[in-house]
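Run log // design_07
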């Protein structure tokens, strides 16, 4: 059996920054730290920090007054920031800068009295945070069919924004429907879907025709990881999204000659290597890493972290 190992895969710059931020917090202040929602959508990463003593919360009220609270990579709404201030929490914002970009766009367009169409998945942490920036101005849609139900006319001021972790094709069909119904609709100066999401999807699309099976490392609540699996399925190739090697099933590999392995932007490389080692040991698999695009993006740690570190 042959394995094609996609590159780029795994951690993006935003995830790297958020995880490094939490690691540095633990070094500076100890593990008695709270994080609003999962720091990133990956079970392995969350379990690692939980075992160190970090507490993940979904309610600001459950955080003790004066405690250190980290905002996750997915961002939060102004309402959450207000509640944190009311509880005198020492906050550190580990929001991915590309998510922050969408938040700032929402604020800008709302102030300019635009009707904002947000393309995204209801209930996703990132979408909740973005909508919280201007709830009276934002309408959330997910499919082209929902475009037809929008109450606006082409005479209205309309702009669309997108969740950063969508499939390029998924967003594209909705954008096309929006442009057909509202020819004057505006778009953000630069697309919202992040570079890492796009690059990982491009790698799967480029390599999927060469394989019989796609294995994506990532958690079920990771939007960008699910998109990678769905690309494989859309091409008629068997595809599975798993957290690690324990979820691999022998029947998946019956009659399979070539496997594509990739990882979502919140999946650590250690889980990829564990799977590779398992397949090499049990199937004698040969691994070929194929690079489809180069990545060199990095993000600085939040200034709030540096400020708190200087006070210790």
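design_07 sequence
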């Amino acid at each position: 059996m042959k394995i094609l190992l996609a590159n780029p895969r795994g951690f993006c710059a935003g995830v790297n920054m958020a995880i490094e931020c939490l690691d540095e917090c633990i070094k500076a202040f100890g593990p008695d730290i709270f994080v609003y929602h999962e720091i990133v959508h990956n079970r392995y990463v969350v379990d690692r920090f939980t075992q160190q003593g970090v507490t993940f919360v979904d309610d600001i009220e459950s955080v003790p007054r004066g405690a250190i609270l980290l905002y996750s990579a997915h961002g939060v709404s102004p309402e959450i920031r207000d509640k944190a201030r009311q509880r005198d929490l020492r906050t550190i914002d580990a929001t991915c800068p590309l998510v922050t970009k969408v938040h700032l766009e929402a604020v800008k367009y709302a102030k300019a009295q635009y009707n904002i169409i947000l393309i995204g998945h209801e209930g996703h942490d990132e979408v909740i945070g973005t909508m919280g920036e201007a709830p009276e101005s934002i309408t959330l849609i997910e499919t082209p069919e929902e475009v037809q139900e929008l109450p606006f006319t082409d005479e209205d001021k309309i702009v669309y924004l997108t969740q950063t972790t969508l499939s390029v094709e998924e967003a594209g069909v909705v954008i096309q429907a929006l442009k057909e119904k509202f020819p004057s609709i505006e778009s953000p100066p630069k697309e919202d879907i992040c570079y890492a999401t796009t690059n990982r999807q491009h790698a799967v699309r480029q390599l999927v025709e060469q394989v019989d099976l796609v294995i994506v490392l990532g958690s079920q609540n990771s939007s960008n990881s699910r998109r990678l699996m769905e690309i494989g399925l859309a091409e008629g190739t068997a595809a599975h999204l798993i957290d690690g090697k324990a979820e691999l099933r022998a029947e998946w590999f019956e009659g399979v000659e070539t496997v594509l392995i990739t990882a979502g932007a919140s999946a650590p490389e250690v889980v990829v290597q564990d799977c590779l080692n398992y397949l090499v040991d049990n199937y004698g698999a040969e691994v070929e890493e194929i690079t489809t695009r180069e990545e060199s993006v990095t993000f600085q740690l939040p200034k709030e972290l540096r400020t708190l570190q200087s006070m210790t």
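The chain has three domains: 2-11+195-291, 13-95+299-311, 98-181.
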